[in-house]
């Protein structure tokens, strides 16, 4: 029962992590991390000057600090809009401009007084996330409707045609937003007024709980929780005395949010003790210097905490636990407050504890709270590492939806070289671009089978396109992309996705050998370096399938590249041997491990000459020291020929079609060579 609930939660968490809005929000906030850090440092300096250097003129810094945080909503808006439009396959400049126009025209962020413009950064703070979603999704939908297209396929460039066809969708989205916003704003004002009318006579615990829960929930959805909470509720719920000598500001900064929102120091400690959590450890190390000053944005947006269901519970629980323990410690008289004025929020941990209590007890309390937070975070962080998408996995997930955009960027450059001929090529490339924009790249895995015992001995990674209607098709677009020198985009996706999928196999204790293809041109122009970087950590598990044209184009360079891969324990195979330029003389010069016999070599209707050719060719290749893989085995007669040829690795529809990685993992767990060997050992031990 517990396992079933965990599996359902993992599926739910994966759907959240891979949601287009969540992915885009993550990208948008990560892009803003440099801004957050610079803005926080400016605030630190400004606060320090206000406190320590009174009488020193620094109004310019005060103004700059106000301006930096004043433009924060619009920076969030533009960054989120850019990445959301990119992932929705709408124009990444035109769409954010539309969002910004609608935002400024409706929210009161920019106000007009006579001939002067002014910024009210509190206005529209909650709309910096809503407006991009409404505008980008509406524009994406309307852009696909043919009725709103002003220009069809014509002699003008794809780039110009795309922008002309945005005119009507632009007008419609702008009109709808302007018409609907007054009603949305009225509903929002009603909610805000309801929050502001909350009973200011609540007891301290109710005020603490409300502030911590709402502000942290706002942070969880990517909104600056502390500032927004102060905007939404009355001052009685943000500035009050926790105890007679302890104001809420000092209580929160000194003994609740240690390291910043979410009690980040506890999360950092938990991450540093997480085995195999390289992503989490790196983010923790980067975050540590900033957490000294209670700046938590790196952890919140880069781990990420935002919209991460695995971290939500401890993110909400730790502040409540800290508040409860610290309140009891002060209320019971175990620790006394000695300093009653506000201590700046950026005062480092332990220093603020000493200043507030003038006792080591205050410091020991902070240490205890950090350790308790680490214990709370640790199991959830471990579950996040084991099951959720993080780091490179999220990056690759985003790439699978953006290959069409990258190819479209290259398409414009291929339009105007030679007018008539390029029009034909650009039209075919347009079809490819539209197909990739509407679908998503993915990798499927075709099992390789030992024909004698039917064990799964490995897989071949095959590129597939999941279409808009959910159907899956093969990579019919590769030839067109090759004509335009754009295959490297697809190769890079395959390498990145295979790296993630190998890590998924590893999480289940599986180490299958997986082969994949790479274009010869990409291989010879440096693509092998990316392969080494991705797969050197999976020794003996990866096999690069080369076409014979790689050797024909530059034999010496190919030999050098294959040797470099072998030094990093990455094997190589010749794919589709028996087609195209295949030449027997080249076999004596190859430095690869495996030859894959193309299906075209399989005997046709048990033709005796074809059988003789297949078996003798197999024998000769084996004597040269190569391993053999028979491709395209679809009938039992073909399987019989393969067995007569003493080939121990085959693939084809007779056994399995290509399948998603989840199915491949399950198949290898149940029918993999390693699993069957373990089952045989257990059976033998039972018999003994």
UniProtKB/TrEMBL annotation:
Q: What is its main location?
A: membrane
Q: Does the keyword Transport apply?
A: yes
Query: Can you tell which superkingdom this protein's organism belongs to?
Result: Bacteria
Keywords attached to this entry: Cell membrane, Membrane, Sugar transport, Transmembrane, Transmembrane helix, Transport
* EAL domain sequence ranges: 425-672
> Which intervals hold domain PTS EIIC type-3?
5-380
From the record, give the transmembrane residue ranges.
28-46, 66-85, 92-112, 124-142, 163-184, 251-274, 283-304, 310-330, 363-381
Query: What is the recorded membrane topology of this protein?
Result: Multi-pass membrane protein
* One Pfam family named in its UniProt record: PTS_EIIC
InterPro entries with a match to the protein in the record:
EAL_dom, EAL_sf, PTS_EIIC, PTS_EIIC_3, PTS_Sugar-EIIC/EIIB
Q: Entry's SUPFAM superfamilies? A: EAL domain-like
UniProt-annotated location(s): Cell membrane
Query: What is the protein named?
Result: EAL domain-containing protein
Q: Which organism is it from?
A: Pseudoalteromonas obscura
């Amino acid at each position: 029962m517990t396992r079933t609930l965990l599996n359902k939660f993992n599926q739910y968490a994966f759907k959240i992590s891979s949601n287009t809005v969540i992915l885009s929000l993550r990208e948008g906030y990560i892009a803003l991390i440099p801004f957050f850090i610079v803005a926080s440092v400016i605030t630190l300096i400004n606060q320090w000057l206000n406190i320590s250097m009174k009488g020193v003129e620094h109004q310019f810094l005060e103004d700059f600090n106000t301006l930096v945080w004043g433009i924060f909503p619009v920076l969030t808006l533009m960054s989120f809009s850019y990445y959301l439009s990119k992932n929705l396959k709408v124009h990444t400049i035109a769409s954010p401009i539309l969002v910004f126009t609608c935002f400024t025209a409706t929210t009161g962020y920019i106000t007009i007084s006579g001939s002067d413009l002014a910024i009210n950064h509190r206005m529209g703070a909650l709309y910096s996330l809503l407006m991009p979603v409404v505008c980008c999704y509406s524009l994406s939908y309307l852009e696909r409707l043919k009725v709103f297209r002003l220009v069809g396929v014509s002699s003008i460039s794809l780039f110009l045609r795309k922008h002309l066809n945005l005119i009507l969708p632009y007008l419609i989205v702008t009109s709808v937003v302007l018409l609907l916003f007054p009603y949305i704003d009225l509903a929002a004002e009603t909610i805000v007024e309801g929050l502001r009318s909350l009973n200011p006579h609540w007891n301290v615990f109710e005020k603490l709980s409300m502030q911590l829960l709402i502000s942290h929930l706002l942070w969880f959805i990517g909104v600056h929780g502390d500032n927004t909470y102060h905007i939404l509720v009355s001052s009685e719920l943000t500035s009050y005395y926790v105890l007679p000598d302890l104001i809420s500001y000092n209580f929160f900064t000194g003994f609740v949010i240690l390291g910043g929102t979410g009690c980040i120091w506890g999360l950092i400690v938990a991450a540093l003790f997480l085995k195999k959590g390289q992503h989490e450890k790196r983010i923790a190390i980067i975050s540590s210097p900033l957490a000294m000053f209670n700046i938590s944005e790196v952890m919140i947006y880069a781990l990420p905490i935002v919209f991460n269901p695995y971290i939500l519970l401890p993110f909400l629980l730790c502040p409540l636990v800290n508040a409860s323990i610290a309140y009891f410690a002060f209320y019971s008289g175990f620790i006394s407050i000695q300093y009653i004025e506000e201590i700046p929020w950026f005062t480092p941990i332990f220093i603020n504890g000493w200043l507030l209590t003038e006792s080591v007890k205050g410091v020991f309390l902070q240490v205890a709270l950090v350790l308790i937070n680490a214990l709370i975070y640790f199991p959830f962080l471990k579950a996040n590492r084991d099951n959720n998408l993080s780091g490179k996995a999220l990056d690759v997930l985003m790439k699978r939806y953006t290959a069409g955009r990258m190819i479209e960027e290259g398409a414009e450059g291929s339009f105007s070289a030679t007018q008539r001929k390029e029009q034909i090529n650009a039209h075919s490339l347009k079809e490819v671009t539209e197909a990739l924009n509407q679908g998503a790249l993915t990798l499927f895995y075709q099992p390789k089978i030992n024909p004698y015992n039917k064990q799964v001995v490995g897989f071949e990674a095959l590129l597939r396109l999941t279409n808009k209607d959910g159907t899956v098709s093969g990579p019919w677009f590769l030839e067109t992309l090759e004509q335009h020198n754009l295959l490297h985009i697809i190769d890079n996706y395959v390498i990145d996705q295979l790296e993630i999928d190998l890590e998924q196999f590893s999480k289940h204790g599986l180490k299958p050998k997986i082969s994949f293809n790479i274009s010869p041109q990409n291989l010879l122009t440096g693509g092998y370096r990316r392969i080494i970087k991705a797969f050197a950590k999976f020794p003996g598990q990866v096999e690069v399938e080369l076409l014979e044209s790689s050797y024909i184009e530059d034999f010496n360079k190919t030999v050098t590249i294959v040797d470099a891969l072998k030094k990093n324990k990455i094997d190589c195979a010749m794919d589709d041997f028996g087609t195209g330029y295949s030449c027997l003389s080249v076999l004596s010069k190859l430095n690869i491990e495996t030859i894959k016999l193309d299906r075209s070599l399989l005997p046709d209707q048990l033709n005796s000459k074809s059988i003789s050719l297949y078996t003798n060719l197999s024998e000769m290749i084996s004597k040269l020291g190569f391993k053999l893989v028979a491709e395209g085995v679809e009938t039992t007669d073909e399987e019989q020929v393969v067995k007569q040829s003493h080939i121990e690795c085959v693939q084809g529809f007779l056994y399995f079609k290509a399948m998603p990685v989840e199915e491949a993992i399950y198949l290898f767990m149940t029918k993999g060579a390693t699993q069957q060997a373990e089952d045989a050992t257990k059976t033998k031990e039972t018999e003994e």
